[in-house]
Design goal:
6 strands, Rossmann fold, 33% helix, alpha/beta
Length: 153
């Protein structure tokens, strides 16, 4: 299976709360640019999981519009989410063998990436806004996925 890990597009710093930070015009353009360049690479995705935070939901909507897949909100993939718990959820979701994209935040996305590729989440790999990392493996397990590609807007 393929697991695409995506950090949301650039977000405004002005909002009533962190959860309500919207994408900036640049963040929208970044995400659309990435999808325009790599849509065929994302064509196998069957499930979009997105953080409930506004900027992730807006990014997910752009992805959904581009590839025609509905969005499922996953409450556990917020900036302070627990990568080990999410890994267990992804293991179950990945048993179908369908390709998945997670649209989330730093530091969570960097920690999850490190956990899945090296087995250790204590050194999060940095992600730029709208960056996608493609991981592959037969199952979603700590230290068992290999990095296949990096997509940068």
């Amino acid at each position: 299976m393929k697991l695409f890990l995506m950090r949301h597009g650039e977000a405004s710093l002005q909002a009533p709360s962190d959860m309500q930070r919207p994408l900036t015009e640049r963040g929208i353009a970044q995400t659309k640019s990435l999808l325009a360049r790599y849509t065929k690479d994302f064509s196998s995705i069957k499930t979009i999981y997105a953080s409930p935070y506004l900027r992730a939901q807006e990014t997910a909507q752009i992805v959904s519009d581009a590839i025609g897949v509905p969005i499922t909100t996953m409450a556990s993939i917020t900036p302070d989410g627990n990568p080990r718990r999410v890994c267990d959820t992804l293991f179950e979701a990945g048993e179908s063998g369908e390709d998945i994209i997670l649209i989330t935040h730093m530091p969570f996305v960097g920690s999850l990436n490190s956990l899945l590729t090296s087995g250790d989440s204590s050194f999060p790999e940095p992600f730029m806004t709208s960056q996608v990392v493609l991981l592959k493996a037969d199952q979603v397990l700590p230290g068992c996925m290999s990095k296949e590609n990096i997509f940068i807007p």
